[in-house]
Amino acid sequence: MAGSSIAGMIVGTVFIVIFASATVTMVDNINKAQQATEVNLPDPEIDLITAIWTSNDGGTLVLTISNVGSETISVNHIYFSLDGGTPLSIGDSSLTLDSTGSLFPGETIDVTQTGVADAPTDALLVAFEYSSSVTVT
């Protein structure tokens, strides 16, 4: 009888060690997952200075954009929308822009879109959680 009690204590101790190890591993994995989700998004500050539409070439829109913040922003992360329409990245190949692919702090660029047949009234610029809008002239 004494032998089976000792064997039961050994098996019980082994199970306790296994459960403790699994708990430590689980807590470590939860902490790693939490750290992986803590992403700091950029906080850009951009201004849409002007939006000018002319009837040239079937309608041409020129947006003047300035980075008034301290962070460099990829043009692929900057979107604009006309009159609440579908947003379009200013890095889109259908647009012409005088930029290297990034908008540096203090830099001002022009973005040109041709084929804008109807004169829009409002233009909205968005980058991450920052936005700026103007009336199209």
Give a structural overview:
The protein is built from 1 helix and 10 strands; from the N terminus they run αββββββββββ. It has 137 residues and is of the alpha+beta class. Strands 1-2-8-6 form a 4-stranded antiparallel β-sheet, with no helix packed on it. Strands 5-4-9-10 form a 4-stranded antiparallel β-sheet, with no helix packed on it. Strand 1 and strand 2 form a beta hairpin. It is rod-shaped.
Q: How many runs of DSSP E, i.e. beta strands?
A: 10
By CATH, the architecture of the largest domain is named Sandwich
What CATH calls the topology of the largest domain is: Immunoglobulin-like
Radius of gyration: 29 Å
| End-to-end separation | 96 Å
Unreliable spans are none
Summarize, please:
The protein is of the alpha+beta class and 137 residues long.
